[in-house]
């Protein structure tokens, strides 16, 4: 089992995104650092547009995630509704 992760800037825009990620990925671990939030999960981490929209109360384009993205680890599988980090074997 390998971990994947995403690191986002710690700010008011990312707070509901992090909450959405945690809601959709119960095995995710959150590490808060002074200016960054790192979310790590075993094997797969999925960000769902509809969950983020429910948290922020407006339409959300997953491309907005890139504004606050610092780094990530894993292969990216992406469409209009989900962005997943996973290691392809």
TrEMBL record:
Pfam families: MmoB_DmpM (PF02406). Keywords: Monooxygenase, Oxidoreductase. Transmembrane segments: none annotated. GO terms for molecular function: monooxygenase activity. The keyword Oxidoreductase applies. InterPro entries: MOase_MmoB_DmpM, mOase_MmoB_DmpM_sf. The keyword Cell cycle does not apply. Coiled coil: none annotated. Belongs to the TmoD/XamoD family. This is Monooxygenase. It comes from Nitrogeniibacter mangrovi.
């Amino acid at each position: 089992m390998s971990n994947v992760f995403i690191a986002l800037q710690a700010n008011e825009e990312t707070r509901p995104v992090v909450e959405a990620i945690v809601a959709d990925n119960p095995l995710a671990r959150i590490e808060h650092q002074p200016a960054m939030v790192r979310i790590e999960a075993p094997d797969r981490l999925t960000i769902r547009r509809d969950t983020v929209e429910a948290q922020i109360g407006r339409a959300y384009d997953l491309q907005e995630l890139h504004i606050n993205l610092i780094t990530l680890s894993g292969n990216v599988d992406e469409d209009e509704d989900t962005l997943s980090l996973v290691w392809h074997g």
